[in-house]
Protein 1
Amino acid sequence: MDVDVLIIGAGPAGLSAAIRLKQKLSALKMDASVVVLDKAAQPGYHNLSGAAFEAACLDELLPGWRTEAGSFFSEMVPVQEDELYFLAPGGKALRFPEIIVPGGMKHKGDYLISLSRLVAWLKEKAEKAGVDVYTGLSARELIWDKNAVKGVRLVDQGRNKDGGKGENFQAGEEVLAKVTILADGSRGVLSREYSAKIGGNVNPQVYSIGIKQVFKLPPQNNFGANRVIHTLGFPSRPDVFGGGFFYSMGQNHLAAGLILGLDWKYTDLNPEQEFEYLKTHPFVAKLLEGAQLVAAGAKTIPEGGFFALPRLWTDGALVAGDGAGFVNMEKIKGIHYAVLSGMSAADAVAEAWGKGDCSADSLASYEQNLEARGVLKDLRHAKNYRAVFQWGVLFGAPLSRIQAFMPLRIPMGLDHEHTTRGASLKRNFTPAVNRETFASLSGTFHREDEPSHLIIPDNDICQRCQKELQSPCTAFCPVEVYRWKPEGVHISASNCVHCGTCAVKCPFQNIVWTPPEGGEGPKYKMM
Ligand code: SF4
């Protein structure tokens, strides 16, 4: 299959790039086929975020979108109340006075949204603009010619458990393109392959895990509407980076979750259970009184920021959105950077297309476009924000106020290197929601008789890991895919929600996450 412009990932970056590119080409009286591929069964099914959204980016992408019939704008909840609390272990909740809340953590002017719903709406916009959006197609690897990207190779469909060809076997196609935009999200398989080969980052990429649940609220509830609450403190110890969030989703629903930096040292830290523990705090329990859990999911967030960005373009390819690492940890936001970087990539491609030259030199205007839209300026301002927290919250919190003025880069290590022998939380607590229920609330699905997409290259390493660290994978996977058995780690790959945590956090880097067949994985409809 040959296309002109191929976009991997139908998320906010990929769909914004596709829409913008069609608009630009039409304004320049040119045409090109623009094809978007996504591994999810439907657009939005693999997209998860809090999410507080800076919506102005859509004014440039889709002028007039706020007032048109059927607009996503009608689903967006403007933030009117914005609160930050410290939760003490004894049950007290202390509200931070607004004057000391950092500017990046203020949310008045933002809108609370479901990212999976935004993506479903953007897909309709893209198709109306003439883009071909294909879901259920999983890309396995890039096709290279030296440092030039020539296209992608898709995952085979219909293999048996032993890897042999099943009845419905279909070999993964090659999709060749003049230019490819990689927008496959956090821990995207192709954007990681791209970054590993092209390089350019001076710090390694680091991640957090975001656990999210959606609740249906009773008509009379303690949360109200148009409200944002962030929490620090309980249940995390000061050496664990992260906090809780509670966002209105209209009058009837509430999104709640916990974000934890994956550089924790504890061998038994179970992020899903930590969120359940947070829900037992009297302040949170009161907010959730009468609430009914209706959906759940998890996702990694790239936190490395400016110093972890790879070189953003090469011959025949650019990388955008979370796949590039466009997340500002000072604001804990990435969606508007995904939209803006997608548009910036599209502008560079349109210009290159006009010249008939998709070489790296021709695509270099991507950087100026990102500067013009303020994406790189924001990331530069937050350049050491995450790094100052690597020594704990007590040290990081004051330094985070001055990090923007630090002239030097603070180096960071990889997340898995922080796991420490003998460090454990030893929680004595029975969660209200277990990880099996959590998995079922994500709607995740994989064929039981296909090869596992989670690969452990060396079982002997697992034996050593069990002896030294008690197999942290059995704790850190939010849906308990890994269980310890005397013969080694047992994998229930069908439960995987594609969060990406295991490949980051395995202390011996002995887990390889490969893309399963297209159309599998979670089915997020409200995330
Ligand atoms: Fe996430 Fe890995 Fe567990 Fe899948 S197996 S849900 S990617 S930690």
Protein 2
Amino acid sequence: MEIKKILVANRGEIALRIIRACHELGIRTVAVYSTVDELSLHVRFADEAVCIGPPSSRDSYLNIPRIISAAEITNSDAIHPGYGFLAENAEFAQVCTDNEFLFIGPTAEIIEAMGNKAAARETMKKADVQIIPGSDGIVETVKKAKIRADEIGYPVILKASSGGGGKGMRIVRDESSLEKAYVTAKNEAEKAFDNGDLYLEKFVENPRHIEIQVAADQFGNVIHLGERECSIQRRHQKLIEESPSPIVDDKLRKKMGEMAIRGAKAINYEGLGTVEFLYGDNGEFYFMEMNTRIQVEHPVTEMVVGKDLVKMQIKLHTGETFPEYFYRMKLRGHAIECRINAEDPEKNFIPSPGLIKSFHVPGGTGVRVDTHVYAGYHIPSHYDSLIAKLIVHADDRLTAINRMQRALEETIIEGPKTTIPFHQAIVRDKKFREGEFSTNFIETFIFSPNTE
Ligand code: MV4
């Protein structure tokens, strides 16, 4: 199938990232934008741009009819959803297909199957993928949750089946607090996702979040591209990601990789996907969720495999298969990404939108910056606060950390407060440098800005 024009249904750095991949493939691009994004670089660098509405996401980047109309009037062949917004919306994928636009992502059926987290657990269990001990599907009542929690033992965690990433989640340390946790988690889930279904898992203490990047063609071939270590997160937002993980050796990578491939094959997966695992301090790892989109942190994988994942993703959806050497892809060196947000780390990460007065990006060997902003750009307050991803690559982890320190030092952003000082504090930290951390790292981390 040949594709001449792709509409990018997103904004910010990822929209620009996708436009770059398209242009290298000789594919024309259409940007869509809300009225506050007119001066963003994704609009500037696309071949065409269509304003799809006012700032509110609901009326622009989340508005399916407006995006489909933009694809129609520009005669686009395909739609790339990026991450966030409509990327994992099964209805959107189906509407694209029904209107004869190629959706750059898996089918609506696969998105739905993995979007229902309780059902995804069951599906993966059947595929012989190790899941966290827990409920079979949803727990319909407090009583049923109590019975299952007794069987697997406390602590347990209640999670929203439509959730993912924190909302509608409660850790339960003993039977006496289960009922209240169940009710509050259910209410939260109903409010946030319009679906109060909950499932139960054994709570894994001090886990690491490690995910495997997979890629599948349309002929049943699936490869994995190594892991990403994503344990450095705050309130379920990742701050730093790296590849490889400091604790994954060749043997563990092979086991995790094979398990991820088995899971992807079991659901006839198509395109790029990520299988998330929790790694416990007992050395065991368990399937947690599968993400059916290109992820924010994909560049760390790109740096160690030396491949453009967005180009690969587009090619897979146009029916290309993997060249033979992809099955014995070597991972080279170590990559780290810091997400730079317009937030004040000294004021509980309160968003800090507004005018960027000056903007200097670092450079030199092994340094990459993915951003849609520039000096004179106004960060709108309506969307997430990611303004740039700083990615470094080096031969080994310590060299990469030192390179990240150097690159952070060179980065100058005047105007908004940013998370740069926070990143500088993390990369100075002894435990971080030793690779000894879990998802609890930030909770116990004491931030003191360097005043030198
Ligand atoms: C868990 C877990 C421990 N055991 N699941 C899921 C979404 C991700 N953002 C965090 N998640 C977790 N799932 C089991 N079975 C620990 C986390 C977790 C977490 C949970 C509650 C509050 C804060 C947390 C911080 C990091 C990880």
Protein 3
Amino acid sequence: MKNFNRNTEQWQQLDRDHHIHPFTDPAQLNAKGVRVITRAEGSYIWDSEGNKILDGMAGLWCVNVGYGRSELIEAANRQMKELPYYNSFFQTSNQPQIELGRLLSGVTPEGFDHFFYSSSGSEANDTIVRLVRHYWEIKGQPSRKAIISRHNAYHGSTLAATSLGGMKYMHDMGGSLLPGFEHINQPHWYLEGGDLSEEEFGLARARELEDKINELGAENVSAFIGEPIQGAGGVIVPPDSYWPEIQRICTEYDILLVADEVICGFGRTGNWFGSETMGIKPDIMTLAKGLSSGYLPISAVALHQRVAEVLTAGGEINHGYTYSGHPVACAVAIANINFIRDNGLVEMVRDTTGPYLREGLRQLAERHRLIGEVRGRGLIYAIQLVRDKDEKMLFSADDEVGTKCRDHCFENNLIMRAVDQSMVMSPPLTISKGEIDELLEKLERCLDLTASELGLS
Ligand code: PXG
């Protein structure tokens, strides 16, 4: 690979010349130059300057088994040689795709037995938009079209997924909010709870779903979609009262309940699926990211029997992608699921590393003035940054506290993501206790640096 023999500056210039990055201001990035990641192992990545960086985000919430797993690499290699591609359109299938369905029906909650494959979380959610509407057409209720979601939800970046999501700045770009998508408020108690108890607030926010259904007419509503724990929105864990009430409302009005498990799935919250952690019994689940630990792009729509039996008896499904059920991606997903299961990663997150991180963050929050709240489950957490924790006073937007803290993390070789005034983390599920100690030490140092930059120490 002799063309790869360039120095960092040359890479940065070529990147400026030819690459447009997702969710990035090009001018701002080009002014400072991109960081070039060259290799990875376990919980660490390395950049082109030779820095070893602890990856507190598992890539983009996805590298659940950590980097460099030979089982996944060899599965891809074997399948590439055997059958690198064939489609699923011509009444054909391939062995990895069939085997993956069998495995998934074993690890998903009871009743999930049919899977539709695509290559990303966004495509899977687009698929869901089409399938839930098709479901109601088959059932003779074609007016059931509207889908209800939450403000500040993230469900992907295609046009339908953008509309499903509740990120206003995404809707605003190019008039991207399609008709037929409705949003209710998110269950973010710390920021929006006011004087209500957690329980009261959870019920109040869930009942916004009932109000919205009544406003639209249940005969016009097909589904409600939500992440068990909102990830990109800032790791928002709803109060205990929230999901049971959502479930009750969906059942009462006969609305399909979709759990977007793209981040929460495959062990992240200490169970195989976030729905189990939060006590949700969904009709449909979106799976991506941890399905292959990001080694290759693959996603799936998981259908409960009660939905699958309607769809499989309802005539032709006019939907699909060239890469639906890609054999190499499926082979990697199989190796990934086997790795998670054979190494007891879900149990480790639930019983060992998850509680260890939680306790470390709790202690850090006790002694650090910037942390107002710690929220999360398993190995997905956020710390809420505050100017004054006793008064529960936030920073002003001009303080750019999240960006400042994120930049300190970057400079100290820790990857963490800032969501507004929260710092979020989602490390590989294979992270060791020693690496969690390192993460916490670096985080504390970066919080100190952030506080002094803001004149607070
Ligand atoms: N649903 C959820 C819950 C997600 O988190 C998607 C769907 C879309 O998946 P794809 O594979 O199409 O990206 C996601 C993706 C961030 C960030 O900044 C999060 C995601 C993607 C990009 C950035 O935290 N999540």
Protein 4
Amino acid sequence: MDLSPYIAEAIKLLREAKSVAVLTGAGVSAESGVPTFRASDGLWEGHRIEDVASPDGWERDSNLVWTFYNLRRTNVSEVQPNPGHYALAEMEKIWGEDFNLITQNVDGLHQRAGNTRVWELHGALNRTECTGCGDIVDQGLTDLGTDPRCKKCGDLVRPNIVWFGESLPHEVWKKAQEATFLCDVFLVIGTSAVVYPAAGLVRLAKQRGDIVGELQPAKVIEINITPSDVVTYVDVGIYGPSGEVLPKILEGIRKG
Ligand code: BV8
Ligand code: ZN
């Protein structure tokens, strides 16, 4: 299918945009070789992700949970950002402080590609948090074994990841909502948009005028290989791999 008319429409909207917000999901890292969630029908080695990525799962068997996260940490340490990540890093250079990259991903690939204005809604694989004193540490992506201890207090540390049933980090969630309120164009890339409250940002981008009267709806551009759960809010849908689509959009914005 010829995507060029949709890409041209996206370029036009972005060239007029004063402020851009982006929501990414696992699909933006798919071409880097990082498995997505729904593709593996939400199973990992026979475990439902909600079972290993949940406080109950942690209470039940923290060793199993650490094994799940150590495997993902090792996987991510062996992959590279793809052209889609790099295109988003170049876009941040164009808009500067008026560019906000909100991600559900925990793989750190946006930062490795050069983005600095990244709001990690669901935490990050490279960080741990202490179950005792709450100390949050960037441990890199090494295998931490199954019983890692806090250097400050000796208690067990857990992944600094937002599990199902846990609330999102307050400051990050506030920033994500602010960025969504203020953007002219909202890009939603590589997410099935079934996980809330993250997916709710797309509706907020369209319906913020219901909350602050004078705000106009943002233009929503979706980049995915198939329409997501929020397709009803999408103005321009571009259905192709983000690693190929994003560089084409960047090229068009730059061509002037
Ligand atoms: C909370 C960390 C409350 C784990 C994650 C019923 C209805 C609605 C909501 C709920 C409900 N029951 C429970 C809830 C709430 C729940 C939720 O939304 N559940 C869902 C499953 C229904 N949400 C929560 O629990 C959240 N917390 O609500 O707290 C609260 C409030 C106050 C006080 C206390 C508590 C917390 C949610 C966070 C969970 N943690 N991640 C980890 O990663 O280890 S979510 C997990 O799913 C990942 O972060 C992932 O990012 C996220 C979403 O998945 P996607 O990124 O979209 O990935 P997916 O595989 O689904 O899709 C990939 C997409 O890419 C596809 O569309 C595919 O087509 C596309 N694609 C593939 N290849 C490409 C591509 N696109 C472009 N190019 C390609 N090449
Ligand atoms: Zn501690």
